Amino acid sequence: MSTTSSSQPLAFPPVAVSSTHPQQSLRLLELPAELLDVVEAQIKNPSKRRKLWFKSSRDIGGSGPTQGQRLPGGSNRGINSQAAAAAAGEGKEGFLHLCTDDKIWAVKQVSTSNSVYVTQTCPPQKQGGGGGDNDKDGTGDTPMAGAEEQANVVRLAMAVAAGSRGGITTKAQVKNVLELIEVKADEREIERRVYDMVPVYHDVEDDNSPLDQGHQGGMTRHEAVSTRDVVDNIAAPTRLIRDVMRKSFIFGLPQPTTRKGERHDEDMVYLPTPALLLRHWKDFLQQCNISGIHLEKNDNVLSGKDLRAVLDGLAEAEETEAARSLALNVTMAILRRFTDGMEDADVPMLLNLGLSLYSPDHDRLLSDARLKFNPSLTREMVGRWLLACHARRKSSSLSNTSSDISSHGAGRTMRVDEFLTEWTQLLPDSWAAECDLTSLISSVDGADTATDGQGVQVLRFEAAGSLPHPLATSSAAAVGSTTLAKDAQNQNQNQKKRKWHEKFGAQRSIPAVKR
């Protein structure tokens, strides 16, 4: 440790400055005023603490699948396999971001030529008596050489001791500063990453055709993921990730897992196919009729008492525990999408993806729940499921037939009146009255209407492989959205000034920090 001192007069006790070696490797994180207020508020009131996460999304290379089939009794490849693929060099590193529940900041590394040090205080050193420390030649006398310098050191030590003050030591020289730049999260990009991570759960009663084996990816996966895995590995605000999962009808199933050497049940999440959703929506409507519940009455509101009766009826109709769990969790995923909690009812947790259907909290919330259906959204999504299912069935039926183009073209059609009849039967009467096929087709790529040789209006489907995912929350035609890091760069280039430059005169180094 090397020591120097300030040249302040002794009337103002000087401060000893030293350097501790080896120096630590540190980088300073510059917090915007908004985040600084959050951190300071948490210190004063820990009970209202908000979580901050450093995240870095990772793109998996083309060798890995993006979607896959969940085989009965098994689970699909998930985040652990993705991490292994990335470690093997298959993935592309993402940019580092700081995330909260609601916002996201890109982390930029900025270099500076200024001397910026990180310091810490040192306790005062005890001074030896009799000036023994100053006896350099063993005779009790101080050599003339360096006597003046030694006197300065003695005066410094005495001043520090007299003032009961310690010194400061530099433990790191900071050459790079991390700057936070707020960016706008891209919901399409989040959706793409969620679909890439979460395995698909197929309906074994309807999705067992060869086309389903390679759903969008060409390969199957063998490891499931939890909600925590999804949230922790997507650089985006937590609430937006969960909202994308809700809009995608993602549901959880309890599975035995091992974390930190302990075995316990944890909900693993899956992306349902349209056929799976359609089957459980039909079961839900049927059970409502059995229980005498009319969804279109009472201003489209479903009470907690009625919901409990429907869920109990669905559970009783299944023969195995696994089937009961699947039916209840898929049904709740549908309700999370189609309904909103009433303002005068305490039901936010009821619609929470992470809440177990068998927890005491769930039963308590059910008794007070009031869920209001959105008829227009329900009508559109059910129509999309039906379109997707018919398109898949038409394509599947052609797999073992002649390869003649004309026969294939005829095989991919369906009478419009037949489709409308089936669609309206999947909705309460008052909701079905507004079924509009033209509006539905305009919102979905891969299907259109035409007139056949007999003058009958028909639906014409494209090949199943070209159909977009019917659960997508954003435009299915959008290909390759702008990433969060690129958004941050564009915003940064448009800035005319940066406060960091004003304070430190920094120069930009690399465009972003990579984890």
TrEMBL record:
One of the GO biological process terms: mitotic sister chromatid cohesion
InterPro entries hit by this protein: Dcc1
An annotated GO cellular component: Ctf18 RFC-like complex
Sections of the chain in a coiled coil: none
Region named Disordered: 54-85, 120-145, 205-224, 482-515
UniProt feature, compositional bias: Low complexity: 482-494
Source species, domain of life: Eukaryota
Protein name in UniProt: Sister chromatid cohesion protein Dcc1
Species the sequence originates in: Fonsecaea multimorphosa CBS 102226
